[in-house]
Amino acid sequence: MVKKPTKYVFVTGGVLSGLGKGITAASIGNLLKSRGLHINIQKCDPYLNVDAGTLNPAEHGECFVTQDGAETDLDLGHYERFLDIELNRSSSLMSGRVLQQVIHDERAGKYLGKTVQFIPHVTSAIAEQIQNAAKDFDVHIVEIGGTVGDYEGLSFIEAIRELSMRVGRSNCVFVHVVYLPYLGASHEIKTKPAQNAVRELRGLGIVPDILVARSEKGVQSASIIHKLSMYSGVETNSIVQLPNADTIYEVPLILEKTGIGEVIAKKLQVKTKKLNIKAWEKMVASAKASPSKRITVGVVAKYMDNQDTYMSVFEALRSAAWSAGVGIKIKWIEAEQLDKPKARIESALKNIDGIVVPGGFGPRGVEGKIKAAQFALKKNMPYLGLCLGMQVAVIAAARSNGLQDANSTEMNPLTSAPVINSGFAGALAR
Description:
By secondary structure, the chain is α/β, with parallel strands linked by helices. The protein has two domains: about 5-280, P-loop containing nucleotide triphosphate hydrolases (Rossmann fold, 3-Layer(aba) Sandwich), CATH 3.40.50.300; about 290-430, Class I glutamine amidotransferase (GATase) domain (Rossmann fold, 3-Layer(aba) Sandwich). Helices cover about 40% and strands about 20% of the residues. The protein has helices at about 20-35, 55-60, 75-85, 95-105, 120-135, 155-165, 190-205, 220-230, 250-255, 260-270, 280-290, 310-325, 335-340, 345-350, 365-380, 390-400, 420-430, and strands at about 5-15, 40-45, 65, 70, 90-95, 140-145, 170-180, 180-185, 190, 210-215, 240-245, 295-300, 325-335, 355, 385, 405-410, 415-420. A hairpin with a 5-residue loop joins strand 3 (about 65) and strand 4 (about 70). The longest helix has 17 residues, at about 120-135. The two termini are about 45 Å apart.
């Protein structure tokens, strides 16, 4: 039996960053999986980091850790939630890891004395990593991080262009996410930035098959789509206007209503089953409902300047609330504030129904987290400790039972009551 080739969906972005390429890629995967296809997904980032483990969460958002311990971009959390799959190390690819491998191969003599260059050696290494991750799947979705035209991302754009030629253009679909700004003064949506973004991509050798036009206003206009089609060369039935949604989980449903799921399946020439998205529709209905019962959960954390730092925690709490049919309010509590000499713990933690202490590393804010855990023990309040949050719960329990010097040797190497040994605490604390 002849094995069917893996199909590819490449998702790129133009105009500016933060348009929602990750959600778009995850939503496309959701729609294809709901049609019975075996889906995989991968994020390619142009950063020179080897992985996301050293990126500042205050700037970049959470470091999402996969089941095999890979430290990755937060978009992989979206992928797992939208596709209900476990991703791994191969699902995240950064420039640093690619360059590290190329230099290693050059030192080992793999290139047989040739001059090592970005094209073809780095681009071929990227394409190889993508193909390895795609093995044994019906469709492999690849999101290219950054904005088309950025210098650092050019090798990834060239890599997917070369890969499309290698596997056959009929086995690939290029989805380009662009932005349609709304001018309040004139009450109109402008298409010029999107036109320029498509022109930039075409200049790099890639003609998009599908345009996803993001906007803040839900103005569906045939004239806008016609104009984009005229100046981009993309068919009108392959252009989607995607305004902001009430919840990101609604995006697959919005895209499905546009017919884009069928368009992608047709372009990829894949045989699909009847769409089955009822469970997802039910979940979205729960997310948008207004239940009579509401609870407040306090999240005691220290990276407070960027909510994306705890995105998976936040989404898990919301999902649990939807499943239980209750509304949820999340109260963010600064851990360091609880450790100040005049901190009023009772006041800071009043009117909450439970406490969550997420992960982190380093001593800053730890004593405040311990006090929060002690408060939960004293009040018999539901408490969830994640990673470092579980460690501080152990410390809090020990101190509440008479071990006043209880601590982790990571936080205090000289503690007389080391209830957690730094030999493994460092790994847990991350």
